[in-house]
Fold this sequence. Notes:
Blueprint: H1 2-16, E1 21-26, E2 37-40, H2 55-72, E3 75-76, E4 82-98, H3 101-104, E5 119-136, E6 141-152, H4 156-174
Helix pairs in contact: 2-4
Amino acid sequence: xxxxxxLIALSIIFYNCGSVHITSDSLVQFDxxxxxxxxxxxxxxxxxxxxxxxxxxxxxxxxxxxHALKKIGLSVSEKPDLLxxxxxxxxxxxxxxxxxxxxxxxxxxxRNYHWEREDLIVGYYDEGALTIDLVDTKMxxxxxxxxxxxxxxxxxxxxxxxxxxxxxxxFLDLSK
Length: 176
């Protein structure tokens, strides 16, 4: 019975962790409307060989960024006003819970004992961080950086939904 409650609690936690956390910072005062064109720094795909975070997902990410930037009014150019740098980091995280003497202590015997709280591993998950840097080509300076952090799924469709959500939120924050 205790294990059923744990499974329900974990399901609720992972369901609620479906959101993407966004942070952004403008390093100089600028208005995105002052820029008309953009392009990307060259992407090194050597780090994206492991599935499901592979080259096709990076291509999908670039397409979503293109779509978001076109909504803002920017277009791709060989001589851009802005250069975009994309950084993707995926790390395996450990889900833990702290032991509780009300539920985890199975004492039988003499009174010569002590109890210590400890963290128990209850699962593993992948957390992804997407960072987008905007560099003004005339100043050759970083003007804006946005980061989206969220829990990833092994399901390709869910990964792409998470990419859509992250890009939408990042560029909504940029266009404010």
